[in-house]
Amino acid sequence: TEWLEKSANEQKVLDAAPFLWVNDKEAESKYNFSMKDTVQNGMLAREHRGGVFGGYHFYICSGIAGNRAPSMKEFKLIIEAAGGHLLSSLAPSQILDPLKTVILTSDPPTPSQLKERGVKNIAKCGGKLETTSWLFHSIITQTNSIYEDDDTVETVSTPGSRVSHVEVPSPSPKKPQGMQKQSSIGCNHFTTRDYLLSSNQAISLV
User: Fold this and answer.
1) Radius of gyration over alpha carbons of the chain, in Å?
2) What is the mean pLDDT of residues 152-165?
């Protein structure tokens, strides 16, 4: 927390190395991690992805920030220090790639969070729903379970690195009653970076 407070006071992400307690056996036992592995994982993550959350965009559901959790300003510092980016909404114009979008919920998630605008659409299109427990465990171990199927990222195995993902229940199918307005957005509505790079719009990214 000292690193977080000083980073917030100075309005920038400070080097975390001076704040690390490498031999804090009590904390390692309590939170099931190894600081030695954390340091090594962090070095690899920064080398390969620019951080453990490199390449990912995060949306924080309502009712989390400041509610027995960091403030939104502090969440932004945490996520950006790990290479990620914070989204202000799940509007299609904000989403570069649903597969690289992480929606953070409470642990356990509340029904209202799962019903927030855009959550089901992003999840349907491959977005990840994770809890704040997953976020903090990823930070403390410098491992990202989303990368487990990505063989381009090398990480050190850390005990307890697997955290269960949030599942969004599918709504029961309803019988059609005349013409109804379509409320969901198709996955092809989102413009991914890969598509942009393969189209004439790629020039705008240069």
Assistant:
1) 19
2) 42
Q: Are 101 and 121 in contact (CB under 8 A)?
A: no
Please state, in angstroms and rounded to a whole number, the distance separating the CA atoms of residues 90 and 103. Answer: 9
Q: Quick one: pLDDT at residue 48?
A: 85
Predicted TM-score of the model (pTM): 0.68
Structure tokens at 166: 């949030």
The predicted pLDDT at position 116 comes to 96
**Mean pLDDT value across the chain:** 75
Distances from the Cα of 9 to the Cαs of 2, 14, 64, in angstroms? Answer: 11, 10, 22
For residue 6, how many other CB atoms are within 10 A of its CB?
Answer: 13
C-alpha 6/C-alpha 48 separation (Å) is 27
Cβ–Cβ under 8 Å, residues 78 and 139: yes
pLDDT at 44 over 70: yes
Is 70 exceeded by the pLDDT of residue 37? yes
Token readout for 205 is 């990214």
Backbone dihedral angles phi then psi of residue 116, each to the nearest 5 degrees: -60, 150
Q: What is the DSSP string of 71-82?
A: -HHHHHHHHHHT
